[in-house]
Design goal:
The complex is a heterodimer of chains A (426) and B (375). Chain A is α+β, with helices and mostly antiparallel strands and 426 residues long. Helix content of chain A is 43%, strand content 13%. Chain A is built from twelve helices and ten strands. A four-stranded mixed sheet of chain A has the order 3-6-7-10. In chain A, strands 4-5-9-8 form a four-stranded antiparallel sheet, with no helix packed on it. In chain A, a hairpin with a 7-residue loop joins strand 4 and strand 5. In chain A, helix 4 packs antiparallel against helix 6. The longest helix of chain A is centred in the C-terminal third of the chain and has 29 residues. Chain A is globular and about 75 Å long. With 375 residues, chain B is an alpha+beta fold. In chain B, strands 1, 2, 3, 4, 5, 6 and 7 form a seven-stranded mixed sheet that branches. A two-stranded antiparallel sheet of chain B has the order 8-9. In chain B, a hairpin with a 2-residue loop joins strand 4 and strand 5. Classes of the chains: A alpha+beta (426), B alpha+beta (375).
């Protein structure tokens, strides 16, 4: 380890020793003890969610004030100017401590939108938001998907038109966004809007930063099949946005969106820890087989083995990718493998457990650690869709990794206005 | 990339270039039809030019002292090229059995000629009657008894599925004495040893039935040590086989994608149809996982972590599934041409199936994995 890295690691430990407790040894699992929740999506009631968001903000502020909030960010905007390697090093050290989960801030805002603002934002916006985001004051969400623009994101229809002509310095946004995580906690949102319907679909999009408290922004929780509300619909009605909040060029929004999405790919599929991972450990699953008296069931043993082998292979794949990243090799499209496997393995695991539990997962007997698995089971269909559907992931792998030709029929040249749409007239 | 990563890539390149010139499909097919089933000249060059048989053997025994990580890379390339060679039986099975015995005298006697490519060796465990896990030493019935004259032992019994059993100069045998299973060495020329080649599904990997009738043998290591020894041998052998499988699966993927890019139907490359494109992506996913599991298991072995036996058994299961899937779907992507004798797709299909079952049925391999996890 070079000297500056060693000093940095020492500082990080001093900071964490002063501010946090070391993480407890993973408690020996005992059937019937502790929290039996196996929820992929948060099932927290609003007041609990609010409290967690406050704790996340507070911890991010503490990090920031001590120089660990934006380690690899440029000093001009409040970053510390160190390398991405220092980021990874800090994350590794912090994982040894018990600290609040900052996912609400970090996954979308700091992980995807922060880098996009840095790359494409105008100076006023960079000054106004970047340090505030990394200090935990501003949470950001991603206003990309629409009811009619899912896998085909570039077919989005939310309009942005210059208010009072091009010289007005303002835009007016109208449309509907959907699947927006953390919108209910966000102060800003990055919106992709159609600014030229006469241009081919990828060439008439512009990106903006929207103030989520502006008049005309309405966030409605979207109840998903688990019964909880992880996502939102966001309605934009005559929302005014200043031109200095535009990211990138007018009609150059697709390039801006790609920056955001590239940073997304690096984070999906690597969701290693947490409650779900713990519940799917070999110890816990074999423990469940003991409780359900299936340890001698040959079919169950074989299913368990096949599942554990695949989960281990996925873990090894991710470990190797992480080592390549530490050696300075950027993650490529092959990371879609991790995303596909994560969804597949969790889905298989949930069904495997359901077969062990039998009737105890279709009706709640009150017994610890049984019906609780229904939370995971009901979440699994989402895993094959969110962050890029399985089908899109396979297209990416086949086209960008294997070099297979694109589907020839896709129209990328005609004006967006002329493209056929769902439910539209023939 | 770290230096060691670059060195590994250099090794991979060197082996790949060597195999491209020495083991193209024509050479594989020639070896399949040859009596010895491998080309002794290529075996000799592998030893002299690339020093491959001794790559992962300790320097004390004439090897170059590299780890399983390096051996894994070599085996991936051999698997990809379907190299017909006694390398796996000699440098993996036999050499690892000798090392696992901790018998220094036996290692000093047998390993240097193996490292130098002068000795072809194998390990005989499975017997024709065995069900489930034929590599389980507990099932071995071949008997070892003290020779009537002198200090040695004699073996009686029959071994089946012995890889390169008809061409090996040195046969290491798991046989049972009063104390339980143990490892013995039998010389090819020993009286009472008869080798009969078997007809194999996969002609690129030869197998033989070996019959022992009071064949003189030398005990290696201690009596009754066979169970423990075999579990260590199988840990390494599983990773080695997994590496071959990952390499073969990668080659099937390359064949499929190359064909899907160039084969036109309905006026467009078949690879532009999602049904074909997604099939190729599915193969890619399995291949990436296979490589990761084999390479990571090798790395864990070299780091000496206790996770290694679990990772090794997992790698073999993962790579078996990946290779069988890739070899099967490769024929499907090719359509009718993939079903012809002239096309190499069936050679990979055959190798995939024989590798999947070499160390026991899927059920046995799953139990090996669960056993190492303590489940």
């Amino acid at each position: 380890m070079p000297d500056d890295t060693r000093d940095f690691a020492r500082q990080a430990r001093e900071f964490l020793d002063a501010q946090a407790r070391p993480a407890a040894e993973p408690a020996q699992f005992r059937w019937g003890q502790g929290d039996d929740s196996v929820a992929y999506f948060s099932a927290d009631p609003p007041e609990v969610a609010e409290r967690k968001v406050r704790a996340a903000r507070d911890w991010q502020r503490t990090r920031y004030e001590n120089g660990f909030g934006w380690i690899s960010g440029p000093p001009d905007y409040g970053g510390r100017g160190l390398s991405p390697l220092h980021d990874l090093l800090y994350d590794a050290i912090e994982s040894e401590y018990e600290v609040p989960d900052t996912g609400t801030l970090s996954v979308v805002g700091l992980g995807m939108i922060g880098p996009t603002i840095l790359a494409h934002g105008q100076p006023t916006v960079k000054d106004r938001y970047l340090s505030a985001m990394y200090r935990g004051d501003v949470i950001a969400c991603q206003l990309f998907s629409e009811p009619d623009a899912g896998s085909d994101l570039a077919s989005l229809q939310t309009r942005a038109v210059p208010a009072g002509g091009a010289a007005g310095g303002e835009w007016v946004l109208d449309g509907q966004k959907v699947w927006t995580s953390v919108a209910q906690h966000s102060q800003i949102g990055m919106a992709l809007c159609r600014t030229d319907p006469e241009a081919p679909k990828h060439k008439g999009i512009t990106a903006f930063l929207v103030d989520m408290s502006a008049p005309g922004v309405e966030v409605r929780p979207l109840r998903q099949m688990t019964g909880g509300c992880e996502f939102n619909e966001v309605f934009l009605t005559g929302v005014r946005v200043r031109d200095d909040h535009r990211l990138g060029e007018v009609n150059g929004g697709w390039r801006v969106a790609l920056t955001t999405l590239m940073n997304e790919r690096a984070t999906v599929g690597s969701e290693g820890g947490g409650q779900v991972a713990e519940a799917l450990s070999p110890e816990r699953l074999s423990g469940l087989m003991g409780v359900t008296q299936t340890l001698d069931d040959r079919a169950a043993r074989r299913d368990l083995s096949a599942l554990l082998v695949d989960m281990m292979a996925a873990r090894h794949f991710n470990a190797r990718a992480a080592r390549r990243m530490q050696a300075g090799v950027a993650p490529g499209p092959e990371m879609s493998v991790a995303k596909l496997m994560y969804a597949q393995n969790l889905t298989r695991a949930a069904h495997f457990v359901s077969y062990l539990l039998g009737p105890r997962i279709i009706a709640d007997t009150g017994e610890w650690g049984t019906y609780a698995w229904s939370e995971l089971l009901l979440a699994t269909p989402a895993l094959r869709i969110l962050g890029g559907t399985e089908e899109i992931m396979k297209n990416i792998l086949a086209e960008r990794v294997l070099g297979l030709p694109k589907e020839p029929g896709i129209d990328t040249r005609s004006p967006f206005r002329e493209l056929p749409r769902s439910g539209g007239a023939a | 990339m770290s230096d060691s990563q670059e060195e590994l890539e250099d090794l991979r390149e060197a082996v790949r270039d060597f195999l491209a010139s020495k083991s193209p499909e024509s050479a594989v097919r020639a070896a399949m039809d040859a009596e010895r089933r491998y080309d002794p000249a290529v075996w000799d060059q592998m030893a002299r030019q690339l020093r491959l048989p001794g790559l992962a053997l300790p320097g004390d025994y004439g090897g170059d002292g590299f780890g399983l990580t390096e051996l894994e890379v070599v085996l991936e390339e051999m698997g990809a090229a379907l190299l017909c060679s006694p390398f796996f039986a000699t440098a993996v099975l036999a050499a690892q059995a000798l090392l696992a015995s901790s018998d220094k005298a036996a290692c000093a006697r047998y390993l240097p000629p193996i490292a130098a490519g002068q000795s072809v060796a194998t390990l005989a465990v499975a017997e024709s009657g065995a069900v489930g896990d034929p590599w389980d030493p507990a099932l071995v019935t071949t008997r070892a008894s003290r020779a009537k004259a002198g200090e040695g032992w004699v073996l009686s019994g029959q071994k089946s599925f012995v890889i390169d059993g008809a061409v090996a100069d040195l046969v290491l045998v798991i046989a049972r004495s009063a104390a339980g299973p143990a490892l013995f060495a039998v010389d090819r020329a020993a009286p009472g040893l008869r080798a009969t080649p078997m007809t194999t599904l996969d002609a690129t990997r030869t197998m033989a039935v070996l019959t022992f009738e009071q064949a003189p043998a030398v005990l290696i290591g201690a009596e009754g040590q066979g169970g423990e020894l075999m579990s260590r041998v199988l840990d390494v052998a599983c990773v080695a086989l997994a590496a071959e499988q990952a390499g073969g699966a990668r080659r099937c993927l390359q064949m499929s994608t190359a064909y899907a890019r160039t084969r036109f139907q309905f006026g467009r490359p078949i690879g532009s149809f999602q049904a074909v494109k997604h099939k190729c992506a599915d193969i890619l996913v399995r291949v990436e996982l296979a490589e990761a599991s084999a390479r990571e298991a090798a790395r864990l072995a070299d780091e000496g972590t206790p996770e290694f036996p679990v990772a090794a058994a997992a790698a073999h299961v993962c790579c078996s599934q990946a290779y069988m899937f890739a070899a099967t779907e490769n024929i499907q992507v090719h359509g009718g041409i993939g079903f012809t004798w002239e096309h190499p797709a069936h050679l990979y299909f055959r190798r995939a199936k024989s590798s999947e079952l070499l160390f026991g049925s899927p059920a046995a391999c799953h139990e090996r994995f669960l056993g190492r996890l303590g489940i």
